[in-house]
Structures are given as structure tokens and as C-alpha cells.
Amino acid sequence: MKNQGLLENQDKTGIYLGIGSNIGNRFRNINLAKYYLNFHNIKTLKTSSYYESLSWPNSKYPKFINIVLKVFTNLEPLELLKICKSIEILLGRKKNPKNYPRECDIDIIDFNNLVCKNEVVLPHKSMHHRNFVLIPLFEINKNWRHPVLRRDIKKMIFSLSAKDIKSIKQI
Predict the structure, then answer these.
(1) pLDDT tens digit string along 101-123?
(2) What is the predicted pLDDT for the residue at 114?
């Protein structure tokens, strides 16, 4: 029973990445992103299912495929962010207007409950409003709590609109 607290704590912390794609072969783009993360010694511990959702904030753009990964790395947050951005470029991402369609988008959702607002904003500033982050994150960690808002993931999901909850599907 002594280890129970340790196991619960491990389930509440971790490094979580969101990966999405809405241009080209979306599944291939995501799988290549996972491959390149691993190549950089960013080891995947858990992977959510694939989820399809409307493009946000412009639902007229192609639909996104998204996943959330729990990963392990010895990198600092800024180093991890730089690698994620380099992988996005490697997979074809170009400088376009914000939220424009893209081959690959990799976001750091949470980094061991670290809170910072400098070069890397942690946790991800909008994650608690996004069905394509919350629902896959819930799938792989039902005990996750937002380190700033101090709200558990179930409450954040239930605070989404019915339209947001119904518009995402596991595939």
C-alpha cells in the first residue's frame, strides 16, 4: 500500500504532447512525427486513439486527425519545443497565418505540471477549451489535473459545449 501514493502521483504527472494534421496523409504525418520524436530520444509511453475533429477555429478548413502522447524525455521544455518545431518543418509545415491548415502540429500540453509563461507557455494556454486535446488526454490519463486551474479533466470535458463533445469522433 505504500506504493499506491507513488503510483497515483505518476498518473497525475507526465509530459503530454498533442499531435495533429489536416493536410495530406494525416495518419502518415502523425506516425512520422511519432517516429521522429523517438529518433530524438523522446520515448512514447502511452498513445491515445486517433480522433477526427473539425478544424478550429475555422470549420471550413479540412478536418484534423489528433492524438495525445505521454512521453519520457530528459530534455528541458525549450529543447523539447525546438525539436517539435523542427519536426513540423521536416514534415512540410510552412509559415502561414495562425490556425491555417498544416501537415503537422505538435504542442506540449503539459510538462510534469510545470507552470511557466516565458519562451514556452506551460501548460498549453488553450488546451482546456479544446475537445481534440481533452478527450484524447482523458483516454490515456483519467486522473490528469490542470496545474493552473486545479480542475480535473472530467470537469473540463463536461464544461465543453454539447456541440464540441459531439463533433469529435474516435477513429
Answers:
(1) 999 999 999 999 999 998 899 99
(2) 94
Q: Which residues on adjacent β-strands are paired with residue 47? A: 69
Burial 86-114 (b: 16+ CB within 10 A, else e): ebbeebebeeeeeeeebbbbbbbbbbeee
In a domain, 6, yes or no: no
How many structural domains compose the chain?
A: 1
Burial of 11 (0-12, 13-18, 19+ CB in 10 A): middle
Instruction: Return the residue matching grid coordinates 503539459.
Output: 110
Report the CATH number that the domain containing residue 131 is assigned in CATH.
3.30.70.560
SS (H, E, C) 98-150: CCCCCCCEEEEEEECCCCEECCCEECCCCHHHCHHHHHHHHHHCCCCECCCCC
Q: pLDDT digit string (tens) for 18-47?
A: 999 999 999 999 999 999 999 999 999 999
